[in-house]
Amino acid sequence: MAAQIVARKSLQSARIVVVGAGPSGIAAATKLIEAGFRNVVILEAENRIGGRVYTVPFADNVVDLGAQWCHGEKNNAIYETLQQNGLDLVESTGRVYDDYKCIRSNKEVVGDDVAESLKSIAFNSIPERQEGLVEYEGSLGAYLTEKYWNEVDKLGPNVDRVVAKEFFENFKKFESSVEASDHLFEVSGRGHLEYWICEGDLLLNWRNKGFRTFLEVLLKSSVESPLGLLDARVLLNQRVVQIDRSNGQNIKVKCSNGTIVAADHVICTTSLGVLKETHASMFKPSLPSSKIRAIEGLKLGTVDKFFVEFKEPFGPSEWTGMCFLWLEDDLKRLRDSNLFWLESVFGFYRVSYQPRVLQGWIIGPHARHMETLTEDEVLEGILWLLRKFLTFNVPDPVHFKRTQWYSNVNFRGSYTFRTLLADELRTGAWDLATPLTDDKGQPLLQFAGEATHNHYYSTVHGAVESGWREAQRLIEFYKTIPSRL
């Protein structure tokens, strides 16, 4: 019996199942394989790898339907991995999301001086490391609103408060897209301080190759072997419906098509949205209350994109993008129409290496409603919006694509944020990340993914770090095996 235990508890024979082939799952699996583990398999619900990294062909090269930028440089696992490997794969996107035009629904373009003044006030109000938030118990929305209007008041008669209000309503949608919240009044102000911003350029694009190039780096993929280290280890179209650890170390992972895979360890990287929807039935026995509180308290929001390809580059060449400011009467009429969802389309911007493409953004409940419409209905609404605001001709596009992250049962949203409810429940990513072990401390069920990172939630570098974290947990555990047997 002792010989059997030793044989099973080894790098060569330990059975490890990773649920999900997104960045965290790929990071965990590749690190385990490089450490010497041999029995590693990934179960992926989709018919592709990548998770919320999803690069697809479009227009002149590719677009990213999911994660789009490498956010920062210093202490960013993605950027530093590229540097360590001598890979020059990213570059600055520039000021596309700074120099956009502000356009009112009466087709008036707000003067650059006024627009820049309001942008400066709004962006400088975002609490990155402001001491006022250390003991703050309110929402990010409440904090931002007070800061913004205090600064606007200092401008006195030099600013039109009607335009300032229109701009702020748009800015709140912009910032909600960063948080992935329905609105800023559900985002924890204090918790916002625990999100760490990596120093350096926050919008590093992947040139004309897309974010998938980083996954190829992790995989060490090649033309002959696209999956590289994970060749023959990824099972696609395997949606996990139950993880049964009731028999201790002999865990059974069941898929919707009837497939059952036995494991000694399971690393679960499913999205927070999937956990919210399925945790009661997915885990046997049930998860501990601390983990359930984290699943219920944190939130996976909805942020969707539109990609509109035109025959020629769109609009004035000096415009990097545009945001939409609604006059009150126009907004009332919009809300009474079947195009009400367009209220949450806050802007369109140029795309790096895609001169003929405009990229738009939509958030929250209106994004979820948009996902239920046909693609033709969505495009009709988008063209109506552009023609409502712009004075120049808006030609019919040659190609259109939109995302539907919430509707996809394998994601149920875009990325996570810390809510006021999480503060009230005294929970956070740390509870979600805590592994479930046996009475000897052996990890049985582990959790990874951006939602499990205390400081880099909502990012791919956070997802990658969490995958490495859980792989390292197993590596450290197996280092102690010989001495304990």
TrEMBL record:
Domain Amine oxidase: 24-475
Entry GO MF terms: polyamine oxidase activity
Signal sequence annotation: none
Record InterPro entries: Amino_oxidase, FAD/NAD-bd_sf, Flavin_monoamine_oxidase
Transmembrane segments: none
Pfam families tied to this protein: Amino_oxidase (PF01593)
Name of the protein: Flavin containing amine oxidoreductase
Origin: domain of life: Eukaryota
Species for this entry: Musca domestica
